[in-house]
Amino acid sequence: MTAYRDVWRRSLEDPEGFWLEAAGAINWTTAPRHALVPRGDEWSWFPDGTLNMSFNCLDRHVESGHGDHIALRYHSAMNGTKEDYTYAELRERVAHFAGALRSSGVTTGDRVLLYLPMTPEAVIAMLACARLGAIHSVVFGGFAATELAVRITDARPSVVVTASGGMEPGRVVEYLPLVRKALEAAEGIVSTVVVCDREGIPGSADEMAGTVPGVAWLDWDRLVATAEPAPPVPVASSAPLYILYTSGTTGSPKGVVRDTGGYAVALSWAMRNVYDIGAGDTMFTASDVGWVVGHSFIVYGPLLAGATTVLFEGKPVGTPDAGEFWRVVHDYRVKAMFAAPTALRAIRRVDPELRQLSKGAVASLETLFLAGERLDPETWRWANDGLRVRIVDHWWQTETGWPICAIPVGVEALQPKPGSTAVPMPGYDIRILGTGGDDLTGTGPRGSSPEGNIVLRTPLPPGALTGVWGSAERYRHSYLTAFPGYYSTGDAGYIDEDGYVFVMGRTDDVINVAGHRLSTGSLEEVLTMHPAVAECAVIGIYDEIKGQRAAGFVTLKAHVAISQERLQRELVSLVREHVGPIAAFRDVTILDRLPKTRTGKILRKTMRQIADGETYKVPATIEDPTVLDGLIVALKASPRRASEPSAMLSGPSAG
Ligand code: COA
Ligand code: AMP
């Protein structure tokens, strides 16, 4: 562990020297003289530096003679399209689209909301915003109009860039009616919508003209045809590159703000040292540009490194089969792949013997990186034995932008431990705190740390969030005040005697469905919109493929008569309409009463333990223990339950 330990220790002991050195991988317009500058109990990275992200991702590679290297390989398993873009071609497309945005009034610091499927236009639009110093906010295509409207209202973009639609297995998703609905809900904010017309999907800018007062609908191709290419605009290192909304504990999502310079430096470091990817290498990240993984390791990371990135539109299974990932790896000679454990579990379910993996198909693959949710040791072993490549489970969050823990294979290929997300990355000083804030780090046998809240000593390294859009208070309240001096990750876990970190689950009401982070609060808000629902609780229960799934428990208003089937149908469609299909919400259980403490707090943890068949203790603070019997009976009657509800009640606990 010597090489790794030396690097990590130096990053904590000499952050200034370590990160200024790492900053050498970036082309700055004005080179920073300082790395870390404290601002009260907050901080800033490279504040005196200026740069342009699009220049660093494209122009500098072209200018250094690599314009003919392939930057982007678009592979659609949905409609069979395959397109390659060299660095020179991508720069050309980005510069023209940046010019088009500029002609629509977009300038440095403006927000542009992107609601796009997994096509090259998504990458082009992101980089075009970055070229102008405008701030993009990408919204995942699986979110409904209400979620889109919430983000428009918060980020206040003047321009929305969208497409006629996306493709899901067996159906097309028409975006324009959703965009229109969102604009009607978030009235008077957006002045222009640019529409990329996708073949085979109904809807176009012309058809939308005049549908929303004050909004001009422009066709992408026509706009670009008359646009002059725009040069990169240098911005301050601290200038926001993007806002990415993520679920918190409340119904309203948090706009995570990412700076430009710190992010560029952190990603460059991670590409070389964590992913071991440089110019000439190919990385395949099977995520979506709507998530942080897509931002960092489909778009910015690989392009900063001068590597080739694969933009994959499709699913791990069914498009057309469970062999598609391996074909992509083979055909594009992928060196590093990144996916969510859910994707592996989905493949394993249909192809447990890996029959779709032909001999030598993944010979180019050196490492499969997994993140987004807990990687269960069984799936780890299946992938490890079946693929015979290095498997790296690594842990990070939308907020951190790059891994908190990983095996830095470019520094030292440490031995993985199934169930662990390995060791802290540079700048991450991980501590385990008890509920009262007591430091448990190193208090276990042989210097291990018992399970508790995982926190990160501030300052956080470059690349991590610099705020929550529009609310300094929310930023502090969400992350910095629970444990002063630390960033609270919201995850619980422990550290073993070798310093390996085990992330076991969330400490808040955030759930993780197929690697997608969802707020139970936002789902509950939707369930209570139904006129029959008096009270509700949404919890994340075990799901064999998706890790967790959202399950709703509702009580009905007095004198309401509605069948379970009808209520379920209506609640499912309400969630689909307001949150989107991605919530994959299907489980509804009607209860007479919800289990609560005497102060009215719903006992979600106990509910989850019962639903998942775990042993549990009846909390001493429970208002009426017999309510749990009702829950057990209802769960036993539920046709969708995965686990046998646990009926083992032991004595009251203080928990
Ligand atoms: N636009 C519109 N709808 C979308 C969408 C998008 N971009 N992405 C997903 N959806 C829809 C799906 O079509 C599905 O709709 P349905 O209820 O009508 O079938 C619903 O949202 C749920 O989707 P999903 O969670 O993807 O479930 P699935 O059953 O379609 O697929 C998996 C299961 C395992 C294949 C899929 O969850 C998967 O690929 N997971 C990996 C996720 C991942 O890579 N996460 C990375 C985050 S870092
Ligand atoms: P997101 O912000 O959507 O990337 O979700 C971040 C959350 O996903 C983390 O706070 C964890 O709860 C969970 N997570 C991500 N990666 C891992 C991992 N490798 N192991 C366990 N949980 C993870």
From TrEMBL:
Transmembrane segments annotated in the record for this chain: none
Pfam families noted in UniProt: ACAS_N, AMP-binding, AMP-binding_C
The Acetyl-coenzyme A synthetase N-terminal domain, residue ranges: 4-57
Domain AMP-dependent synthetase/ligase span(s) in chain numbering: 64-459
Domain AMP-binding enzyme C-terminal: 523-601
Family classification: Belongs to the ATP-dependent AMP-binding enzyme family.
PANTHER family linked: ACYL-COA SYNTHETASE, ACYL-COA SYNTHETASE SHORT-CHAIN FAMILY MEMBER 3, MITOCHONDRIAL
The protein, known as: AMP-binding protein
Organism: Microbacterium profundi
